[in-house]
Amino acid sequence: MIQPADIREWRDQDVVDEQGRKIGVLEAIYVATATDEPAMATVRTGLPTRHRLVFVPVDDAVVGPGYVKVSYARSLVKKAPSLGIDDVLPAEQEGAIFQHYGKTYQSGPGGGRQLARR
Question: Total domain count for the chain?
Fold first, then answer.
């Protein structure tokens, strides 16, 4: 699990799947608004002129020298809901990310966002 104090240190590190295959580069961490614990990461993928950000849960992530290993297959992550590099995640699209990974989605405190970018 990525600890909140380590978030800045691991940006721009390679993100690899459970078999060590590179998925992309860690762009940002999204925390759960209810707990302030890391919940998702955005991973920069694609060609240099056509990057996009895909979401992947970091609940079982392992951090190593120069990489962050997630417990999801590269093929699943690459098909996850995505954003353009400069886009902001709309609140109404948060549920689709959780559904893609078979996770339960509940809106944040007071019916607001569940995810906040760090």
Answer: 1
Give the CATH number, domain containing residue 14. 2.30.30.240
Q: How many CB atoms lie within 10 A of CB 112?
A: 11
30 has a pLDDT exceeding 60: yes
Cα–Cα distances in Å, from 97 out to 2, 20, 45, 71, 114? 19, 23, 16, 16, 11
pLDDT of the residue at 6: 64
Q: How far apart are CA 43 and CA 94, in angstroms?
A: 16
Residue 96: CB atoms within 10 Å: 12
Q: Is 116 exposed, middle or buried (0-12, 13-18, 19+ CB in 10 A)?
A: middle
Domain assignment of residue 16, given as a range: 2-115
